[in-house]
Automatic annotation (TrEMBL):
<dbReference type="GO" id="GO:0006412">
    <property type="term" value="P:translation"/>
</dbReference>
<comment type="similarity">
    <text>Belongs to the universal ribosomal protein uS2 family.</text>
</comment>
<dbReference type="InterPro" id="IPR005706">
    <property type="entry name" value="Ribosomal_uS2_bac/mit/plastid"/>
</dbReference>
<dbReference type="GO" id="GO:0003735">
    <property type="term" value="F:structural constituent of ribosome"/>
</dbReference>
<keyword id="KW-0689">Ribosomal protein</keyword>
<dbReference type="GO" id="GO:0022627">
    <property type="term" value="C:cytosolic small ribosomal subunit"/>
</dbReference>
<dbReference type="InterPro" id="IPR018130">
    <property type="entry name" value="Ribosomal_uS2_CS"/>
</dbReference>
<keyword id="KW-0687">Ribonucleoprotein</keyword>
<dbReference type="InterPro" id="IPR001865">
    <property type="entry name" value="Ribosomal_uS2"/>
</dbReference>
<protein>
    <recommendedName>
        <fullName>Small ribosomal subunit protein uS2</fullName>
    </recommendedName>
</protein>
<dbReference type="InterPro" id="IPR023591">
    <property type="entry name" value="Ribosomal_uS2_flav_dom_sf"/>
</dbReference>
<dbReference type="Pfam" id="PF00318">
    <property type="entry name" value="Ribosomal_S2"/>
</dbReference>
<feature type="region of interest" description="Disordered">
    <location>
        <begin position="274"/>
        <end position="305"/>
    </location>
</feature>
Length: 305
């Protein structure tokens, strides 16, 4: 799909039909399923088309201002409108599907995924979706060493548990008021940071991140330990640090909710398959390695462009 510069009358809604038609024309040329057409190469035609429409409606395609971009995201950009980059939703749909399949595979093999999103608009969504699918989450602040020095973090969790035991047993009421106030303040701080990872005794098999630029410490720690990263990457992010990038608007609430809910659904599917296939190891699909080769090819083409 060639990159274009859009010219519109300034109305937000006028972008949708033109962009949708342009994407669908390109998908048809490349043999990708389109509404009303049967494509034997895909088993989930309806789901893919609905997802594309939902992405448009949720504003997943809106990137940052053209002056605030990372050139490494060039291969994911479809065009520009009024100084705003427009992401290529054809790539977003495909990579979102691959990321979900990977997440499902991780949980199917009884691994865990850590959901990370500390920006204000992402916090409630990350917590809600992580709890819905039974995964761990970080929404307040990423503690340095949360992955690379997990045992030290576990000591903080033990401290939190000890304070709560004192509160529940009434032991704290026998302490001086000043000490009680200090413990309550410490409890509030620890609980806000650690509540989502209390049961995390081993490293997660993968992490899912909203805005890897903001969560660069988490991404760096995961990369250092060889933990795969699934992330929403906006036009100002570095996709080279992400094993499963999902080109998307990481600022809009509807966009964050749509992508995060999709990953959570994949986790639930993986958990169900794990129960059905208990005791049977299922390897990660070879399609992931093929996708990485395709990514490298696209990256090379984008750099040469």
């Amino acid at each position: 799909m060639s990159r274009q510069t859009f010219r519109f009358d300034g109305k937000m809604g006028s972008l949708f039909p033109v962009l949708f038609q342009s994407i669908e024309e390109s998908r048809e040329e490349e043999g990708v399923c389109c509404p009303g057409k049967v494509n034997p190469g895909y088993e989930e035609n309806v789901m893919i088309d609905v997802t594309l429409k939902e992405m448009l409606e949720a504003g997943v395609h809106f990137g940052h201002q053209t002056k605030r971009w990372n050139p490494k995201m060039k291969r994911f950009i479809y065009g520009e409108r009024n100084g705003i980059y427009i992401l290529d939703l054809q790539q977003t749909v495909r990579r979102f599907r691959v990321a979900r399949e990977f997440a499902k595979s991780v949980v199917r093999n009884r691994g865990s995924i850590l959901f990370v999103g500390t920006k204000r608009q992402a916090q409630p969504i990350i917590q809600q979706e992580a709890q819905r699918c039974g995964m761990y989450f970080v929404t307040e602040r990423w503690l340095g060493g949360m992955l690379t020095n997990l045992q030290t973090v576990r000591k903080s969790v033990e401290r939190l548990n000890k304070i709560e035991e004192m509160m529940e047993s009434g032991q704290i009421s026998r302490l001086p008021k000043k000490e009680v106030a200090q413990l309550e303040k410490e409890h509030e701080k620890l609980a806000s940071i650690l509540n989502g990872i209390r049961g995390l005794s081993h490293l997660p098999a993968a992490i899912f991140v909203i805005d890897p630029k903001k969560e660069h410490i988490a991404v760096h720690e995961a990369n250092r330990l060889g933990i795969p990263v699934i992330a929403m990457v906006d036009t100002n992010c570095d996709p080279d640090m992400i094993q499963f990038p999902i080109p998307s608007n990481d600022d809009a609430i509807r966009s964050i909710r749509l992508i995060t809910a999709g990953i959570a659904d994949a986790v639930l599917d993986g958990a169900l398959e794990s129960q059905v296939q208990k005791g049977h190891e299922t390897p990660v699909s070879e399609s992931f390695s093929e996708t990485k080769e395709e990514e490298d090819s696209e990256k090379k083409s984008g750099d040469e462009a």
